[in-house]
C-alpha cells in the first residue's frame, strides 16, 4: 500500500511538472510579441489559402504531365527517357517521382484534394520560414507580414501545384537543422530537396563554405557522403537498370529554357539568350561573384577564403600525421574542436549565395520565384538601405513577377532591382561568424570527460 501511494505521488508530481512546463511554454509565447505575431500571420494566411482554393480557379500547367510521368513509373517503367508527359520528358531526379506517386495515391490524381494538400504544405513551409526569421531575429516585428504578401507565391503553391514547393520546403527544413548545428542531418534533408529539383544546388557553394567553417575535413567528407548516399538510394531503381538515361535526364545541367517564359533577361534577343556564349558569361559572372563574396565578406574574419582553405589543409595534414604519432594526438584534438556558427551568419551566407545564383540565372520561369522569395525580406534587411527603399525594392520584385507575359521593361526592372539588392548586400558590414567562446567551452567539456 505505501508503495502504491508513492507511485501515485510520483505520477502526480510528473503530471504537475509537465503541466507547469506547458503553462510556461504558453506564457512564453504570449509574452513574446514576435512569436504571437508570427502565429497571427499563420492563422490569417491559413484563412487566405482556404479562400484561394475555394474561389480562385485552378490553372492547368504541369499537373497532368506530373501525373503521366508518375503513372509510367508506377507502371514499371525505369527508363527515364521514356517517362514523359504532355509538356515533355521527365527532367527531375527520383525524389520527385516518389513524392508525386504518394500524392497521386492520396488524391487519386484529382486536382482539388491535391490543392488542399498543397495548402497544408504552404502552411508548413511558412511556419518553418517564420521560425527561421524568429531564430535569426533580423526583421522588425511588422516586416514579418511581408512573407505572406506574395500573390505569385500563393499561386505557385495552391493554383499550380509545382514541385518547386516541395524542394523549397525541404530546403527550409534543412536550414533549420543547420541553424542548430545539425550538419549531417541537414545535409541529408538538403540532398532530399535536391532529389526533387536541382535548383537547390544553388545553395551548395555557400553551404560547403559553412561546413568547412563548422567542421574539420573528416566531418565535411562524412556529411557529403551521407548526402551522396541519399541520392544513390533514391535513384537506385534507375541506376541499376538505365543509369545513363537517369543521370543524363535527371541531372542535365545544360538545359536551355524557352525564351518566351523567362521572367529575367527577356530583353536579351532570343538568339543571344539561347547561345552557349551567353550561358558561359553568366556562369563566369556567377562564380566570380561567389568567390568575391566568399573572400571579402563571408571569410573576412578568417583572413579570406584562401586563408580558410589553407588552415583546413594544415589541419588535415596534422590529422594524418597524428595517425602515426601518438604524441601529437592531444594537440590535434585541441585544434579540431568544432566552432559554433552564429545563426545570422548561416542564414545570410546561404541566402546571399542562392541570390547570386538567381541574379545570374539565364532563365527564371514563374514558379522559380519560390526559390528565393522567402529570403527576400531577410536580404533587404541585411542591406544598409533605409526602410522605404527596402519596401520599394520588395514591391518592384513582386510586381515584376506578376507581369504576364513578362516583357523587356519588366525584365530590365527586375534585373535592376536584383543588382541594387546585391550592391546593398556588398556594402553591408560583414558579421562576425562565430558564437563567442565556443572553442573554450568545448575544450572544458572534453577536459571534464577525460
UniProtKB/TrEMBL annotation:
One of its GO terms (cellular component) is endoplasmic reticulum membrane. Its EC number is 2.4.1.258. Pfam families: ALG3. One of its GO terms (molecular function) is dol-P-Man:Man(5)GlcNAc(2)-PP-Dol alpha-1,3-mannosyltransferase activity. It catalyses: an alpha-D-Man-(1->2)-alpha-D-Man-(1->2)-alpha-D-Man-(1->3)-[alpha-D-Man-(1->6)]-beta-D-Man-(1->4)-beta-D-GlcNAc-(1->4)-alpha-D-GlcNAc-diphospho-di-trans,poly-cis-dolichol + a di-trans,poly-cis-dolichyl beta-D-mannosyl phosphate = an alpha-D-Man-(1->2)-alpha-D-Man-(1->2)-alpha-D-Man-(1->3)-[alpha-D-Man-(1->3)-alpha-D-Man-(1->6)]-beta-D-Man-(1->4)-beta-D-GlcNAc-(1->4)-alpha-D-GlcNAc-diphospho-di-trans,poly-cis-dolichol + a di-trans,poly-cis-dolichyl phosphate + H(+). InterPro entries: Glycosyltransferase_ALG3. It is found in: Endoplasmic reticulum membrane. It is a multi-pass membrane protein. The keyword Ribosomal protein does not apply. The chain crosses the membrane at residues 37-58, 120-149, 186-212, 219-240, 273-294, 346-365, 385-404, 411-428. Its main location: endoplasmic reticulum. It is an enzyme of class 2 (transferase). Keywords: Endoplasmic reticulum, Glycosyltransferase, Membrane, Transferase, Transmembrane, Transmembrane helix. Pathway: Protein modification; protein glycosylation. This is dolichyl-P-Man:Man5GlcNAc2-PP-dolichol alpha-1,3-mannosyltransferase. The lineage of its organism: Eukaryota, Viridiplantae, Streptophyta, Embryophyta, Tracheophyta.
